[in-house]
Amino acid sequence: MFSFDKSSRILASLGSGVLLVTLTAVCHAEPAGHYGYGEPATEDQIAGWDIDVRPDGKGLPKGSGTVDEGMNVFETYCSSCHGAFGEGMGRFPKLAGGDGSLAEDRPEKTVGSFWPYASTLWDYIHRAMPFFAPQSLTDDQVYALTAYVLNLNYIVDGDFVANSDTLPKVKMPNEDGFIWEDPRPEIRNERCMKNCRGEVEIKDSAVGKNLTPSTTGPLDKGLTE
Amino acid sequence: MFGKLRRLNQDISRIALEESNSLPSNERRRFLRNGLFTAGGAMVGGALAGMSPRLGAAETQYPPEIPSWTRSLGPGVVTDPYGVPSPFEKEVIRRNVPWLTAEKTSSISFSPIQHLKGIITPNGLFFERHHAGRPEVDPQQHRLMIHGLVERPIILSMEDLQRFPSVSQINFIECPANGGMEWRGAQLNSLQFLHGMVSCAEWTGVRLSTLLQEVGMKPEGKWLLAEGSDGAAMTRSIPMEKALDDVIVAFAQNGEALRREQGYPIRLVVPGWEGNTHVKWLRRLEVGDKPWMQREETSKYTDLMSDGTAHGFTWVMEAKSVITSPCPEMPMRGSGIYQIEGIAWSGRGKVKAVDVSVDGGRNWTQARLREPVMSKSLTRFSLEWSWDGNPALLQSRVIDETGYVQPTLAQLKEVRGTNSIYHKNAIQTWQVKPDGSVNNVQL
Q1: pTM of the full predicted structure?
Q2: What per-residue confidence (pLDDT) applies to B47?
Q3: Which H or E element spans position B357?
Q4: Residue A100: closest CA among chain B residues belongs to which residue?
């Protein structure tokens, strides 16, 4: 006699797309560890590498930091690139300012004007800063820096203490400025082949703008125009 | 003359014999055979060249003269144990735009697509993007951890990973900022710098679905976090539907181990999606129930609209094409018949057709697609064109298998404004001038 399982496989082998999905579902039901390669990851091992932080605070460790403490850490490790007040040096990112500039011709996307979640600030400082020595700061230093940068942006007061309770409650100015759904394709053209547009006019040219590095000769030879 | 040559050969033979006296007999026989042959051959060639005034005095390698490389021996095998390009191709290199970033450790390089043929980008020319420089990862020490909402969290060595069944697929990777300097106007007069943040390779690795099945996902696992082990510990959140579709953990690129710039020993390949999601030097995959809203998916790689709102999670690279010959680096050389050639691709699947215009988009002719045409891969197109020497405005326009027709820049600007930086897949216009020069212009 056919078991249900057997008959579904036989039917699936006849090539029906719908039943192939059934077969895939059977595969997914396979117990974890089919191949058995690798080693089980222990809790300690996971804790060592699991550094990500989410907007709801999941992942934030113990510890805390004040705005004043953050100012000292910032001056030591951050101001050479980001400027003493987060104004940015050279082409390194500006961290503060830019309020209300997002719809302007030259928007300034800073932590204060653009970043939707405060958790991301803790996460990014912790995983990637300071730029020349990533993951060298203590959790308390990261909390302090987070507090300081939020304060530079007037998002928290000077007496703010950043920790795993307070950070998820910080409402960032631009939190509602994002649409987390892809609206594309935004443009639905017909494929026209003949007489598709009127007079053609060149509105802009790259010639003479003196921005193009050389594409011949040694690397970094300089600008061509 | 021949007497002199014989004496020279005898001298060499004598020296070779003396040199070989200290070798064991089998070694000695081999040494003599190789040594005599090579030394004698070289001498014969040299002597003959000296003998003949016509051959020796040749100033050109063109016919009827016989090239010098025809009259001599080249180096033998394993002179370059890992091959290198011809020295005459030394200008075909990745380049960067120094003014674009603060410094090179967090920067991007551009593929020299004006010089490339076919659809596969050589590994040494694949564009690079680093957020904290390119790390030197020891594969013996490297581990991939898979954990989170799974039944069996595991740590895999690189040997463990390669025991899983593997697949190979040809996919492009494009930085979503490719062409992003041009929203406000034509800036760069170079194909390489305008469109060189795209490359294509055959990737070999393990399907992410195989690995996720192995660890046993819990039903509430809807998102995946991929994390790199470089100094930026780069992270992106990827929805589970895509993770289970066609994503692979790749360890090989075009037949060899990944290049270090491409994430050695392992990286994610997320076909058709923006390059930033293809996390390199991959060390960790976490299954979760929500996206993580990391720096790369909030403050970066979101598209700012002209009203100040921004679109996030715009992962797909929409269809795009560009003419690679002629281009600013490959000008026209007098009137006559030309093969207009270019590349097209779509993050949503296969290229269905490419049209070419020589009059700025007023009229179009369907180009020939060159096989193979594969999903989420570069596709070559070409069209024969008889140039009469008059000014022309060249454009290409791709149509992908979803029916999407590549838009004009004016159309994109109307919807997105000029601040979005990313995902500029507009039609490129090349201005051809009567002197044959080719320039980047906007209509």
Answers
A1: 0.87
A2: 43
A3: strand B351-357
A4: B308
